[in-house]
């Protein structure tokens, strides 16, 4: 019921705590004074994290027009797409999670932050570092990353991503042009269409992202091919990110082959 994290925006560093206030139908935000100079940016990022600008009623009205999704959308009313406070952080987590378990990815992410994140004191146990910056990782070498337990290919991908962001060739901020960004992501070594679409969905806040290659998504559509999943998804535009989240919740009851 509580979201707590460290944050760094430019030279401003601090921590943020967000709690649900159901009676007010709102979120209660507490943050350090050190972040007040960048408060509008912090609040904007939190809106992205919790998808506060979404209109679930409008989205559901569109998705339930397709009988394939009608039941599953009705079973999960108000579903939102979780965003990202920091695009680089989200992308690194997505890359670390490729082809390994969630537990394994979480372990790697912890080692990554311990190795490259700046120490930062907070009142919350276990929250003691800032998220590693693209500039810091761009200056690292492959051996430093592989020493954490990741394979060389994954280490090269993360460094290439960091270099692209640190030099300004790539932006993973909310609102960046999705199609152009996806093209630049897949041009990097080790980033495929699934990862690029996932980053677009969460970091860029693109409501129409669709990782058609996703095995769970295709299974819950009745075991269809990626091409067939793409065909079916045309009816869900421009809300395919939300359709994806619904499909990840479980199988459709009337899946078409």
List the helices and strands and how they pair.
Blueprint: E1 2-9, E2 12-21, E3 26-31, H1 39-50, H2 56-63, H3 67-75, H4 87-96, H5 102-116, H6 134-138, H7 142-146, H8 152-166, H9 178-186, H10 193-202, H11 215-220, H12 226-233, H13 240-249
Antiparallel strand pairs: 1-2, 2-3
What does it look like?
The chain has helices at 39-50, 56-63, 67-75, 87-96, 102-116, 134-138, 142-146, 152-166, 178-186, 193-202, 215-220, 226-233, 240-249, and strands spanning 2-9, 12-21, 26-31. With 257 residues, the chain is mostly helical. Helix 4 runs antiparallel to helix 10. It is globular and about 50 Å long.
What portion of residues is helical?
Answer: 40-55%
- How many DSSP-defined strands? 3
Backbone structural class: mainly alpha
Oligomeric status: single chain
Main sheet makeup: 3 strands, antiparallel
Proportion of residues in extended strands: 5-15%
* Morphology call: globular
| Weakly predicted, low-confidence segments | none
Arithmetic mean pLDDT: 95
Record the strand order, biggest sheet: 1-2-3
Tell me the span between the first and last alpha carbons.
Answer: 39 Å
Structure annotation, total helices: 13
Q: Indicate the radius of gyration in whole angstroms.
A: 19 Å
Order of helices and strands: EEEHHHHHHHHHHHHH
């Amino acid at each position: 019921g509580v979201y707590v994290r460290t944050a760094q925006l430019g030279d401003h560093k601090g921590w943020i705590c967000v709690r649900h206030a159901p009676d007010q139908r709102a979120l209660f935000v507490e943050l350090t004074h050190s972040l007040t100079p960048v408060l509008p940016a912090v609040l904007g990022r939190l809106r992205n994290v919790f998808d506060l600008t979404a209109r679930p009623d409008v989205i559901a009205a569109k998705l339930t027009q397709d009988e394939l999704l009608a039941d599953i959308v009705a079973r999960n009313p108000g579903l939102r797409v979780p965003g990202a406070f920091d695009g680089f952080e989200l992308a690194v987590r997505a890359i670390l999670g490729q082809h390994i378990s969630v537990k394994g990815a979480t372990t790697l992410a912890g080692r990554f932050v311990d190795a490259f994140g700046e120490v930062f004191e907070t009142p919350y146990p276990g929250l003691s570092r800032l998220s590693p910056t693209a500039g810091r990782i761009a200056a690292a070498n492959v051996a430093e990353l592989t020493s954490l337990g990741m394979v060389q290919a994954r280490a090269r991908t993360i460094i290439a991503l960091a270099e692209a962001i640190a030099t300004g060739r790539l932006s993973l901020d909310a609102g960046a042009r999705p199609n152009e960004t996806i093209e630049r992501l897949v041009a990097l070594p080790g980033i495929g269409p699934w990862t690029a679409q996932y980053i677009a969905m969460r970091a860029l806040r693109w409501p129409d992202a669709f990782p058609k290659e996703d095995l769970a998504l295709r299974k819950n559509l009745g075991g269809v091919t990626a091409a067939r999943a793409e065909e079916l998804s045309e009816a869900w535009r421009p809300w395919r990110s939300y359709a994806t989240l619904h499909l990840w919740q479980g199988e459709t009851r009337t899946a078409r082959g």
